[in-house]
Amino acid sequence: MRKHQFIMYLIVVLVLLGISASTTPIQENTIESPTVAESENEVDQCLACHTDKDSLVSTAKVEEAVESENEGEG
């Protein structure tokens, strides 16, 4: 008999916790988004840098020849 009462109390407590959790107000995100002018300026800077072929070639890293570890003296 006591086992059934304990289970019923546990169910009631869980239901009440579920109800109170669902009625808790959700806080809104307070992160500020950039203005339209700032985001357009960022896009323009990115496009200017990545579409300039001379700039890309001059800043590119020279690829080094890598020897295979499977060849050579063992």
Q: Summary?
A:
The protein has 74 residues and is mainly α. The chain is built from 3 helices and no strands.
Q: What is the distance, rounded to the nearest whole angstrom, between the alpha carbons of the first and last residues?
A: 78 Å
Average of the residue pLDDT scores: 76
Low-confidence stretches: none
Radius of gyration: 32 Å
User: Helical percent range?
Assistant: 55-70%
Number of DSSP helical runs: 3
What is the string of helix and strand elements? HHH
Proportion of beta-strand residues = under 5%
Tell me about the largest β-sheet.
none
Task: Label the overall shape.
Answer: elongated
| Count of strand segments | 0
Q: Structural class of the helix and strand makeup?
A: mainly alpha
List its traits.
single chain; 74 residues; mainly alpha; 3 helices; 58% helix; elongated
Write up this protein.
- The chain has 74 residues and is mostly helical.
- The chain is 58% helix and 0% strand.
- It has three helices and no strands.
- It starts with a helix and ends in a 15-residue tail after the last helix.
- The mean pLDDT is 76.
